[in-house]
Amino acid sequence: MDKTAFLFAGQGAQYIGMGKELYERYPVCRQTFDEASESLHMDLAELVFRGSKEQLDRTENTQPSIVAMSIAAYRALSEYRIMPAVMAGLSLGEYSALTASGVFTLSQVIPLVQKRGKFMQEAVPQGIGKMTAILGLSKEKAEEACEEAKAFGIVEPANFNCPGQIVIGGERDAVDAAGRLAKEKGAIKTVDLPVSAPFHTSMLQPAAEKLKEELDSMLLGEMKIPVLCNVNAEYIRGSGEVKELLYQQVMSSVRWEQIVRKMIKDGVKNFVEIGPGRTLSGFVRKIDRGLGIYHVEDIASLEATVMALSEA
Q1: Which is catalytic among the residues 39, 101, 200, 295?
Q2: Which of 77, 88, 266, 274 could form a disulfide bond with 228, CB atoms 3.0-4.6 angstroms apart?
Q3: Which helix (H) or strand (E) is 31 found in, with range?
């Protein structure tokens, strides 16, 4: 039987109304949002379904909202007894994967990612850093461009998403210089990203240190489903590794393409993106178009995924 992987959405995919259909149809989804709201002492469903985009896009609101919606969708899919052989999540999505695997409880993870969002937002003053996507350039050439641009300040690869799409981040002048060098080296184009800080770079170390303090005080559960991690694209060998890896993750490159390729090498044929949007599905498609690629974010996509995987 073909193996299935679940992939959990990261920050940037959020939108007002995400998960509303699932919330209205499935009691387990309503319970998920209720539990998340209780852990934050605020009405998360009100924010996500009827709030303003400006409110939702605040990083400290975005992160718990996406994790709550993703876990609600995961629980709805689980009611059909469809379970993965392996899981992973892009950046923030790694917290959803670890929650689905049993490492975090929902009431632990929701306040944790709210604080993570706040720490990340505060780590670099507004206007100091930026992130840019480099399109159509090899990993090696993108790394070369960053290395050469370090004369202008901090700039590092932040995300290796899929072939021909690498995100860099750091100080504004250095990122702009790396973008210019990337074009000289053959990049098709560069696109500045609408984010407030250079995530997954060494500039986020202050956020990592604060997050470490939060993690150190937490009692983690047992990992029931294997999870591949962002930092090294390897299997996390148990809950004992999680705290250090999540500390490193804030200021390390996300090796998403490597994660997906490792899953394929290990026999995964079906990929299900869980949570808002289809960004990860697009990345998987660019890596290998011959795979089964599905997503779960509303009733129609859930039913289509259940039908397809039941027949697989």
Answers
A1: 200
A2: 88
A3: helix 27-40
200 as an active site residue: the answer is yes
The one catalytic residue among 37, 39, 70, 91: 91
**168 and 45 both lie in a single domain:** no
Could you report the per-residue pLDDT of 43-65, keeping only the tens digit for each? 999 999 999 999 999 999 999 99
Average pLDDT for the chain: 96
Q: What does the pLDDT read at residue 292?
A: 96
Domain span holding position 137 = 129-195
Q: Which segment of 162-171, 191-200, 205-214, 280-289 scores lowest on mean pLDDT?
A: 191-200
Rounded CA separation 293/269 (Å): 9
179 and 287: one domain?
no
41 is catalytic: no
Tokens coding 252: 């390390």
Domain identity same for 154 and 293 = no
Are 112 and 95 within 8 A, CB to CB?
Answer: yes
